[in-house]
Amino acid sequence: MMPHPSMDADRLREVEAVVRADIERGRYFGAAIKVARGGETVLDLAVGYADEEHTQAIRPDTVFSVFSITKAFINVLVLRAIELGRFALTTPMVEIVPEFAGRPRERATIFHFLTHTTGMPGVWEPVPGLLLEELEESVAAVVANVHGVVEPGTRCDYAPMAGHVLLAEVLRRTDPAGRPIGRILRDDLWGPLGMSDTNLGILPHMRDRHAEPQMRGVLPITSRSRTSPGDYGLYTAERNEAVWAGSASTTGDLQKFMEMLRRGGRLGDVRILSPRMIELARTVWTGDMPNELYRTVALRNGDAVPPAHLGLGFNVRGDGMFTTQLGTLTSPFTFGNYGAGTGLVWVDPVADVSFVGLSAGLLTQADNIARYQRLSDMVAAAVV
Fold first, then answer.
1. Are 374 and 329 in contact (CB under 8 A)?
2. Alpha carbon of residue 301 to chain centroid
3. 199 with 206: CB under 8 angstroms?
């Protein structure tokens, strides 16, 4: 790759050196990273392996299970549906999903769901061991078992699954064509953006490039499937509707998604969102509230508790100095999403930079935050 005049090539080489050193000491098995400045790729890194046994090398087109980066796809389609007039940020969830009735959760709006301030606790699964591959079954389980504990808007509890189960159901119930959620994602987002290696499940053409996730004991639940064996069969099955964590993608596809966001909602001739919506989405809406999930992570790690800094479905860098995957050298307007122990995507609209990082061999939450803060800062420092 030719050096880019707006990036320090020596600093970018240091990013690769740090990743290689991490892999050599067994911190994780391998990684793929893409960085673009002004839409031009300035770093395209693929190093290490997909597995501990070093049988599958990481390539630029390796398919990773991206876990909660899946939520970003649902978030963007929810914002798009608002632009299309199907519902509003202020619409109560119960108006679209009537069975969600019950105080105080019935006062939660789409805005509360996007900002993780519904008043419901952040549960990983509504019923232990429940199969979560069908959206209809997940909706029923959430409605029956996840109840509000505080008034919506008064506390920020990151929702590992329940919030996006209901947001996806909103998309499905308000879709004029009555399509299933996987088809909505394909037709309205992945297809138009040319993201042919992104799917809820591992399609046949993705199978031989898939870095099957090795959990290393960092997730508190199993994720079983009716069609694929093992405790984590959900992530190897050809199809699922786990709209909070079930998608797989490549750094190339995710770069297209992030470049759409960097360019104000458009990629080429395809318009997904308006610039105004993206401006709202990268605004911090949670004030000084901490994210309760990461309050625990910070306290256990001996760190100061950071603010949640959540926008409409995105994590936002915001102001202040605290530990964050989005980096301490990025601008306050930087926004993005992450996947448990493995992936991070962000856009810094001030530096005009997009970042995509995916890795194999899950890290703990605290170690993953530290890893990506370091890498994000190194990329930010390469901007000249």
1. no
2. 23
3. yes
List the 247-249 sheet strands across, edge first: 199-200, 247-249, 63-65, 210-211
Q: From 367, 103, 336, 125, select the one nearest 224 (Cα to Cα).
A: 125
What is the per-residue DSSP string for 12-52? HHHHHHHHHHHHHTTS-SEEEEEEEETTEEEEEEEEEBSST
**Contact (Cβ atoms closer than 8 angstroms) between residue 352 and residue 37:** yes
Rounded to the nearest angstrom, the gap between the alpha carbon of residue 218 and the centroid of all alpha carbons in its chain is 17
Q: How far apart are CA 375 and CA 24, in angstroms?
A: 17
Reported as type and span, the H/E element at residue 207 is none
pLDDT at 298 over 90: no
Distant-in-sequence contacts of 361-364, Cβ < 8 A, 24+ apart: 361/27, 361/28, 361/29, 361/30, 361/52, 361/214, 361/216, 362/28, 362/213, 362/214, 362/215, 362/216, 362/218, 362/219, 363/27, 363/28, 363/216, 363/218, 364/218
Query: Given the structure tokens 């530096």, which residue do they identify?
Result: 351
**Main-chain phi, psi angles of 225, to 5 degrees:** -130, 155
Q: Which of 368, 343, 367 is nearest to 257 (CA)?
A: 343
Q: How far is CA 270 from CA 148, 230, 267, in A?
A: 39, 39, 5
Q: What is the pLDDT of residue 2?
A: 52
pLDDT digits (tens, 9 = 90+) for 142-193: 999 999 999 999 999 999 999 999 999 999 999 999 999 999 999 999 999 9
Question: CA–CA separation, 285 vs 311, rounded Å?
Answer: 5
User: How high is the pLDDT of residue 190?
Assistant: 99
